[in-house]
Specification:
It comes from Brassica rapa subsp. trilocularis. This protein is an alpha/beta fold. It is built from 9 helices and 14 strands. A hairpin with a 7-residue loop joins strand 2 and strand 3. 34% of the residues are buried. It binds ligand 9Z3.
Length: 314
């Protein structure tokens, strides 16, 4: 039996993927955004923040799919902090998940935030004014200043094709670019050409599905797509006992600059940044109710990125 090499697995994944819809449109937005942030005397740092989980369709005309858990909170909060730190952010997010500047809004903002004092006026309930103001003003400012480009994905096929586009487009930004990979990416999938076209029929007993392994794109991102970019990946476990060991192995295997290790149930309280310079525990300031772990995490990552840029120029 012949086994495929890593590069071959990657090319065969892309060759058999359904083509990305609106690719021209995405490329145009992306190149415009990068151009704006790298020209006219500007040399802003650009970070690609990935956020939310990828789906694995079980049918080509998809009715059923497998999903990876992620609310998108980490990615959204991190994006806000990167913008605050002066970065331009390409926010590659799962459709429908948490958005930057919207974390304090209720689940159904349209229905819960607004009121109509009369037929021709609309008002925001006083209890939501601050949250709505932040959502609208901060997000509009970030977009208007070309600090934020939002690109949605749903499937693993879309996610990996878009990540490749972004990485390739950012190649010339070199060490000033960063990948902050907080999305929860499927490890297993159904290859497009072995997937049934129509809805899987029910009524004939249990369903057996064989899932193939998603090729390890992180290696290719590091070695080929954007070798000079600063690269942060995430490791999620539910068993705290194996977390640091798994993160350390990922650091060595993928040669990323740091792995952010988090345990599902405590992920909003603390993370551990694992890198060749040792492990650093980063916590939320528990004495401040509005403090989030991303405030301290992004400060540390930005610091590390600055050192990386300095070292690359010397
Ligand atoms: C993470 O570990 C993220 O921190 C979370 C954030 C998904 C836990 P939320 O979106 O949660 O705020 O609800 N992301 C990476 C998850 C992942 O699938 N990592 C892979 C792994 O651990 C490798 S890249 O094997």
């Amino acid at each position: 039996m012949s086994s495929m090499g890593e590069d071959e697995e990657v090319s065969s994944f892309f060759e058999s993927s359904p083509p990305l819809k609106k690719m021209e449109d995405i490329l145009q937005k992306l190149n415009g955004f990068i151009e704006h942030n790298s020209s006219g005397g500007r040399r802003r740092r650009i970070v690609c923040v990935t956020s939310g989980g990828t789906t694995v369709p079980l049918e080509q005309r998809c009715v059923r799919y497998i999903d990876n858990f992620s609310s998108g909170n980490r990615g959204a909060a991190s994006t806000e902090n990167f913008v605050k730190a002066g970065y331009a952010v390409v926010f590659l997010y799962r459709s429908g998940t948490c958005q930057p500047y919207c974390r304090s809004l209720p689940d159904d903002p349209f229905l819960e935030c607004f009121q109509f004092p009369d037929n021709s006026n609309i008002q925001v309930h006083s209890s939501h004014v601050e949250a709505v103001k932040m959502a609208v003003m901060d997000q509009q400012a970030a977009v208007a200043e070309a600090r934020l480009l939002k690109l949605p994905f749903t499937t693993i096929y879309e996610y990996l094709q878009m990540l490749r586009l972004i990485a390739t487009a950012l190649k010339d930004v070199g060490p000033c670019s960063m990948f902050y990979l907080a999305a929860a990416v499927s490890d297993f999938y159904v290859p497009w050409n072995s997937m049934t076209e129509h809805k899987i029929e029910s009524g004939s007993g249990p369903l057996d599905i064989r899932l193939a392994q998603v090729p390890k794109m992180l290696s290719i991102l590091r070695t080929t797509w954007a070798p000079k970019a600063f690269c942060i990946s995430f490791k999620l476990e539910t068993d705290a006992k194996i977390l640091i060991d798994k993160a350390t192995k990922a650091l060595g295997k993928y040669k990323v600059h740091a792995v952010v290790a988090n345990e599902l149930s405590t992920r909003k309280e603390e993370v551990v940044v694992v890198s060749s310079s040792g492990n650093v525990v980063v916590r939320r300031d528990s004495d401040k109710p509005e403090s989030i772990v991303e405030d301290n995490l992004i400060r540390l990552i930005v610091d590390r990125h600055s050192t990386y840029i300095k070292e690359s120029h010397s």
